[in-house]
Amino acid sequence: MAEEVALDLDELRQLQNIAKRPRVLNLINSEISNLEKLRDSAVSSSAKPEVPVTVPAPVSSSVKPVSSAVNYVTLGTFSWDQDNEKVKMYISLEGVDEDKVQAEFKPMSLDIKIHDVQGKNYRCTIPKLHKEIVPEKCKVLVKPKRIVITMFKSSRGNWLDIHHKEDKIKPSLEKEKDPMAGIMGMMKNLYEDGDEEMKKTIAKAWTDARSGKTADPLKGL
């Protein structure tokens, strides 16, 4: 483009020397002025140094994922008492912030989480209570040296334990399965407490009963 402008200027200057009419000279001079400005601007723009474009280096993101797992110290030692309507648990622990205690009550269980106590987290859980409670009535009270957990019983009455225990009141029927077992036990007591004559009689009756000679070991006593 610069070469074309230079050639145009040379030719216009030649016409400038030939032209005689003022109007024509004014037109030629105006065009020469325009072309000179165009030439100067082209030279100026070509003379500007190229500014290097800096591409930012990719930032390496090495952010480690934060683990959501929380470690707890199990609180397995506590005391408790009760009345007909409620059960109270007492956990000895100092420096507890009430806002950092999380309690979850269910009809047959409780889960107490205590966070940030001197850099540690504590947890007390009873997965299965002795009997049902009323979750919406239960509450946790934080005191300076202990935590008091109050659970309201679903039905009035006395709890034998705070943990659930299966009813294992099953009468032993071993002796009832063997009618002779009670008699043999009584004979043993008579033998141990009796005199020599009694011991001989019981021994004979015992032997006869075992050998099948008699069905009643007390016969003859």
TrEMBL record:
InterPro entries attached to this UniProt entry: CS_CacyBP, CS_dom, SGS_dom, Siah-Interact_N
One GO process term, biological-process aspect: response to stress
Molecular function GO terms recorded: S100 protein binding; tubulin binding; ubiquitin protein ligase binding
One Pfam family of this chain: Siah-Interact_N
PROSITE patterns xrefs: CS (PS51203), SGS (PS51048)
Keywords: Acetylation, Ubl conjugation pathway
Coiled-coil portions: none
Residue ranges of every copy of the SGS domain listed in the record: 148-221
Domain CS: 73-163
Role played: May be involved in calcium-dependent ubiquitination and subsequent proteasomal degradation of target proteins. Probably serves as a molecular bridge in ubiquitin E3 complexes. Participates in the ubiquitin-mediated degradation of beta-catenin (CTNNB1).
Name of the protein described by the UniProt record: Calcyclin-binding protein
Species the sequence originates in: Arabidopsis thaliana x Arabidopsis arenosa
